[in-house]
Write a structure and sequence with these properties.
With 266 residues, the protein is an alpha/beta fold. The chain has one domain: 3-Layer(aba) Sandwich (Rossmann fold). It contains 8 helices and 7 strands; from the N terminus they run βαβαβαβαβαββααα. A 7-stranded mixed sheet has the order 3-2-1-4-5-6-7. The longest helix is centred in the N-terminal third of the chain and has 24 residues.
Length: 266
């Protein structure tokens, strides 16, 4: 199959792509478009600005070039290093529904679109292009946690489990498609928000690979409709971030972050 992956330019997306692309590339033609950010997050509280620094700025602007230029053979690579698995140029695409991009999408003519943390909301003109549809890996348990930073809100609410949901995208509504699979893991009081998110993608990527295998076999994905719910979560406020920290949680654990980078990228 020809597969277009839509991802965000951040550490979690890169981690997921490093787990996916080497395996998908064995029997599929891969293409990758990246968004620069998720949501209209220009006025973030200070805690989320720090999180963004570790998720995007530090990884993309400092660590990424160092990883790409390193002569050591690490397990994972930067976004630049992922070009080796692609059949076309890696592109930054932030206006997925613009007429020019829709024309490019139609010219590319992917069989399947896979979305992971992508910053744009696909509308009908984009969704209708791939004959095998669009699937999205949401880092939260649906339908309970629609929206952004689902893992934060699960931890904030003292949930004992967090998870990912692999679901279809069938229209421009957010996180409402048919559920293909939900994978769960236990929360840990000593693991940061970012640490939890990164851990989630290990099983989430296995779920994506299983779905692609089904589609490559010519079969249809088993899925079920979501229960209707009005819940939708946005970026937390500074007060909510402070309450999160008062409960003993961290958005980022710097020591764990460095250990993660060293384990996978150095």
């Amino acid at each position: 199959m020809k597969i277009l992956l839509l991802c965000n330019k951040d550490l979690a997306s890169n981690y997921a792509l490093n787990m996916l692309l080497p395996k998908l590339a064995k029997s599929n033609d891969l293409h990758l478009w990246l968004s620069a950010k998720v949501g209209k997050n220009n006025a973030l509280p200070k805690q989320l600005k720090t999180l963004k620094f570790f998720e995007q700025d530090l990884f993309n602007n400092l660590l990424g070039p160092l990883i790409a230029g390193s002569k050591r053979r690490a397990a994972f690579t930067s976004f630049e290093g992922l070009r080796a698995f692609l059949e076309s140029e890696l592109k930054e695409v932030n206006q997925i529904n613009s007429p020019d991009i829709i024309n490019e999408l139609r010219a590319l003519s992917p069989d399947l679109i896979i979305s992971i943390r992508y910053g744009g909301i696909l509308k009908d003109n984009a969704i209708s292009v791939p004959p095998k549809g669009v699937i999205n890996l949401h880092s939260g348990i649906l339908p309970k946690y629609k929206g952004v930073m689902a893992t934060f809100w699960a931890m904030y609410n003292k949930d004992t489990e967090i998870g990912t949901t692999l679901h279809t995208i069938e229209d421009a509504s957010i996180d409402t498609g048919r559920i293909i699979n939900v994978s769960k893991m236990a929360t840990s009081a000593t693991t940061s928000y970012l640490g939890h998110v990164l851990a989630l993608y290990q099983q989430g990527c296995i779920d994506i690979l299983a779905a692609v295998e089904v589609l490559n076999s010519g079969e249809s994905l088993n899925s079920r409709p979501q229960e209707s719910t009005e819940s939708y979560f946005t970026f937390p406020t500074e007060i909510e971030c402070s309450d999160f920290e008062k409960d003993g949680f961290k958005l980022v654990d710097e020591d764990d972050y460095l250990a993660f980078i060293h384990k996978h990228y150095v």
